[in-house]
From TrEMBL:
<dbReference type="InterPro" id="IPR022742">
    <property type="entry name" value="Hydrolase_4"/>
</dbReference>
<dbReference type="GO" id="GO:0008233">
    <property type="term" value="F:peptidase activity"/>
</dbReference>
<protein>
    <submittedName>
        <fullName>Pimeloyl-ACP methyl ester carboxylesterase</fullName>
    </submittedName>
</protein>
<keyword id="KW-0378">Hydrolase</keyword>
<dbReference type="InterPro" id="IPR029058">
    <property type="entry name" value="AB_hydrolase_fold"/>
</dbReference>
<dbReference type="Pfam" id="PF12146">
    <property type="entry name" value="Hydrolase_4"/>
</dbReference>
<feature type="domain" description="Serine aminopeptidase S33">
    <location>
        <begin position="64"/>
        <end position="169"/>
    </location>
</feature>
<dbReference type="GO" id="GO:0006508">
    <property type="term" value="P:proteolysis"/>
</dbReference>
<dbReference type="InterPro" id="IPR002410">
    <property type="entry name" value="Peptidase_S33"/>
</dbReference>
Amino acid sequence: MVTVVVAAVVLVSAALGYRALRQQRVARTLLIEVPPGIAEERFVRLGGIEQWVSLRGEDARNPVLLVLHGGPGSPYSLFTPALRCWEKDFTVVQWDRRGAGKTLARNGKEGSGEMSFRRMQEDALELCAFLDERLPGRERILLASSAGTLLGLPLVRARPDLFAAYVGTDFNVGVAASEQVAHAETLAWAAKHGSRAEVAWLSRMGADPSRWDVASYNRLMRLRDRTTRDGRGMAAIFPPLMLFSPAHGLRELGAIVEGLGFCTERLFAEMVAFDAHAVAPRVELPFFVFQGDSDVHTPASVAAAYCEALEAPLKHFERMADSGHLGAFVRPERFLELLRRHVLPVVNGRGAQVRA
């Protein structure tokens, strides 16, 4: 028995030591030490609670890229090491929203307050006011991914004056609209690669999300993650990011896991009811969507149909080849090229007009 305990202690110690070594290596790649760079993380009081925000960029005079994470409780601050290349052109702002990540670790479930996308929209307005004070005069781009669409789209619909452009990826038109395509594709995959039980369950579940419960939705997401063409589903992407993140302790990693279920449970009804066509048939700012062509969660064809119908002063939709859900964050260099080619010229031109 003593031998087993000693062996277990040695293994755990070795694992933690390896984790610490990898964290140190990642931390070195994240150093920004030369002005006018910015590398800050702090808790900001938004909507009556402390919420975690980071600001990173090699030149604080660059446009601000405010990232709205998906999940809805899946903080993209984990992607910070992968997004290092974005920091040459933008000040990247990551925000762990109420109920997620470091914000959940700080406040707990009971201290998270009202959990709704409308409340988060008010939080976002307060965050923009903070950014106006910290980075005055900077053009601001809203980048919304997946469930972040449910916050980002109403936000720019209501306050287009706060942003120079909207950029969507993993664009979530709505669960009902997405399932018109995604359910049939998932069922076809299960018939070929899955089990008879999975086919039967999917058939019973159907494509009408108003009939689903949270448990069924979570099971569907796990199953659908297995259908990714490149084998880079969310279950494969997040664990190494979590394990080797220099910015997250073990308690905070526990909060990330806890927040995934907590946010989905509290926001499920809003997620199922969301319809981008009804929320924002028109927007009053430049609008871009760069969507993975093999996205199994938010199909590109559904996002393209929304963009085709959308009224906007300027709009552009483009498929990212060989990319699935979270393609912007898994292949950040490719996404950066799209930002440079399509978005930055518009934003920089707008900034020049404002300064004139």
